[in-house]
Amino acid sequence: MTTYWQAIETRDRSLDGAFVYGVTTTRIFCRPSCPSRRPLSANVEYFDAPASAQAAGFRACKRCRPADAQHPEANLMEAACRYIDAHAEKFQLAGLARHMGYSPFHLQRLFKAALGITPRAYAEARRVATLKRELRQDRPVTESVYNAGYSSSSRAYEQSGAHFGMTPATYRKHGLGAQITFAIAAAPLGLLLVAHTEKGVCSIAFGDSDAELESGLREEFSSAVISRNDSPHLAAVLAHLNGAHRLLRLPLDIQATAFQRRVWEQLQLIPYGETRSYSQVARAMDRPSAARAVARACASNAVALAIPCHRVVREDGSLSGYRWGVGRKQALLNKERQ
Q1: Does residue 122 register a pLDDT over 70?
Q2: What's the confidence (pLDDT) of residue 158?
Q3: Is 30 a catalytic site residue?
Q4: pTM metric for this prediction
Q5: 64 counts as catalytic
Q6: Domains (ranges, CATH) in the chain?
């Protein structure tokens, strides 16, 4: 896959509109295809839009004029999104490619470079958004499913696990009836809570008291039926925390946007005992200007250790915030490095 720096090196016009780059030595920002002399990669910063570059103190290049009206490729992606919005219920990449006059492969590459997800993932996200909107209006589940463009209720239920963390019927009732079981045990970094539904783990949290942990769980899942009992996953989490095994692979039942899922999947690839910066994670996703969005996705992680957000640090290696305390983050990293 073409990286942003490779696009600059090859002056790839297909990525004009997907990002702009600023040169720190001149404080000028350009399109990827700019004919100006290429800068050193160490002197380049990436931005998702001209406005972001201008806000950071860069001024537009007079040769490629990146702040002018949108590049045709950006207009193309807007047209592609409009087409998907209108045909999400029966989306086919081949149909979109024919409509736009591009090959499926080239169009998918342009779309993912611009939006960070594939056209099919975008179509599914739009369909799920429609389903959620229908359900929030208290329409019957079956009616909502078909209004959102699903061919059957089974198809909607199949997709709902990744987007809702619960079935459409449960979502419509604001989580009412969802069964969550949790257990709390002493751990090296304080008390540890592990909670699960029938589908998988929905929360792993550190705390200083049983009351604090249970209160946080009930607040997060305010409409669910929550009970305290043994957890089949608690032993695995404790063993991992104690260093008995490095990999922690659990079935998860968590809600996430498409971008959050991409970030969390990337975090699970960081080896035990190593760290990555927020910008490194963003670049690994081919979204070099999304470091702040990566940080927000890390902060929204509800399953400590299973998604190892503690392994993401600032660019200089220093520690940033951690949902369960910076002290715990430091202790986890120290233990993994031993």
Answers
A1: yes
A2: 46
A3: yes
A4: 0.53
A5: no
A6: 4-60 (3.40.10.10), 70-173 (1.10.10.60), 179-241 (3.30.160.70), 258-337 (1.10.10.10)
